[in-house]
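2024-03-11 09:14:02 DEBUG pipeline.ingest accepted 1 chain
2024-03-11 09:14:02 DEBUG pipeline.ingest length=198
2024-03-11 09:14:03 DEBUG pipeline.predict start
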Amino acid sequence: MNYGPTLFIGVFLAFASAWLGMIFLPAHHLGHLKPVAADTTSPALPKPYSGLELRGRKVYQADGCVYCHSQQIRGGEYNADLNRGWGPRRTVPQDYVNDDPVLLGTMRTGPDLVNIGARQPSDTWHYKHLYQPQLTSPGSIMPPHPFLFEKRKIVGQPSPDALDVPGIEKGYELVPGDDAKALVAYLKSLDRTYDVTK
């Protein structure tokens, strides 16, 4: 017996029904809709990143910060993240409108950073924490990032960016490098404390 025509009709109907359900019907129902530009000036959205903050975001990714820090405040039965003071509310999808890729994190070895800019607005604190986390957070297991800083001989006046940290020899200063400045700018931009109900 020849099953060729029956097989052909069956395959054709399978593909036709898939095309109808996945292409034609959605296009028919939604094809008349016009795109709407997002209102980026809305107080219910995070402000776009500056160039320096975007560079800092790349440093954040390259240095592997995303492997130990999350950027999402979770709710849950006991609201543990809110009780820790990591933010005033759970994160919502609009918090990530400027993020590509979204850096939710893989685990939490350290605290959540989605609101670190609001919790810790001091440049000096961030620089000291990056250079030697134990200086600002006793007991921290975060690895130090001295490669983001430059130790140099003081010529004339000390730099206004010089850090006051122990262990720097007399006549030398420790100043943040370009990557440290960019990373701190990015961390300070992480502030999701705006009202999402507007």
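2024-03-11 09:14:41 DEBUG pipeline.report The beta strands are 149-153, 172-176.
2024-03-11 09:14:41 DEBUG pipeline.predict end
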